[in-house]
């Protein structure tokens, strides 16, 4: 993770945004009043989805169980009753 002080971050904001979007590498912005992290919107959305899925009781166990299932034991899309 790249770190930059707030003064330089102001000067380099355009380049910082370009870099976090291009490389998915968060940037730590350091300030005397507290630090912040600059991340891409895609990374933010992925984090939010992970937090949401982990908040559903039993979801983590269900995902692990599904990962360990063989494809032969899985249903096709046509076999699922919606």
TrEMBL record:
Taxonomy, superkingdom: Bacteria
Pfam families referenced in this protein's UniProt entry, alphabetically: PhdYeFM_antitox
Gene3D superfamilies cross-referenced by the UniProt entry: YefM-like domain
InterPro entries, A to Z: Antitoxin_Phd/YefM, YefM-like_sf
Cited function: Antitoxin component of a type II toxin-antitoxin (TA) system.
UniProt family annotation: Belongs to the phD/YefM antitoxin family.
Protein name: Antitoxin
Species name: Dorea formicigenerans
């Amino acid at each position: 993770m790249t770190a930059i002080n707030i003064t330089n971050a102001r000067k380099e904001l355009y380049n910082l945004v370009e870099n976090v979007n291009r490389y998915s590498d968060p940037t730590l912005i350091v300030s005397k009043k507290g630090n912040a992290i600059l991340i891409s919107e895609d990374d933010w959305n992925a984090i939010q989805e992970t937090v949401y899925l982990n908040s559903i009781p039993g979801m983590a166990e269900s995902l692990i169980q599904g990962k360990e299932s063989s494809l032969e034991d899985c249903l096709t899309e046509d076999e699922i009753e919606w």
